[in-house]
# Entry
Amino acid sequence: MSANYKNWVPNGMITALTAGTAILGAGTAALICSDIDPKLKKVLVGTAGAGTLVCGAMAAWSIYAHGKFSYDGKRQLSKAIIEGTAKYITLPEGGIGLDIGCGSGALTIACAKRNPHGRMVGIDRWGKEYASFSQQLCEDNSDAEGVQNTEFHQGDACKLDYPDEYFDAVTSNYVYHNITGVNKQELLRETLRVLKKGGTFAIHDIMSKARYGDMQQFISELYNEGYEVVELIDTTDGMFMSKGEAKILGLSGSSLLIGKK
# Structure
């Protein structure tokens, strides 16, 4: 059995958008051939046609993105991002790390592989938005990879059910930008709250100013609070992807916040 980390673009999205394009296209064609009032016909054809184009463009994008993110495809962008983030996570002997929003377990498992002398905990809410992701899937993937130093639990990134300075490392990948109505720097604060003194962190997300505010000011605050190392790395400048690729995929502003407490 091999691990199945799924795809960041669900198959159901592609199916729904493709079907929607076909239905709208058929409806547009039917309206063109109809004998209804010409003025009404013009409005309806225009509306249905525009809907077809929009839905078709979204279907085309989802197919393109699915191919880029696929673990079985040529590009394997998801795998590159996961492994590129995991390399920053270091656990001491007997240490424990936390992966927030673990999804299918990919990052948790990658970190555990790199730190066989420690243990990784993955948490997620596993909501309906990603119905194919689950705790069982994470556990199955860990077993498929032959990794025994992982565990997975339900959890909330906004309020971690762990005491202060509990983990030797914390990580997360493309999670916080999906959480609406919450200050992203406060989410980072909650993540770093559970990090031990001397621990490492690596958090990858779309850290654009519109989403995260002034990250350079945030970094300065962390240094003033005694953090030993804090660095914000643009991952769309050849590290994980090109700026053009990031723009097409809607990942512009992707950055990796790494450091040591």
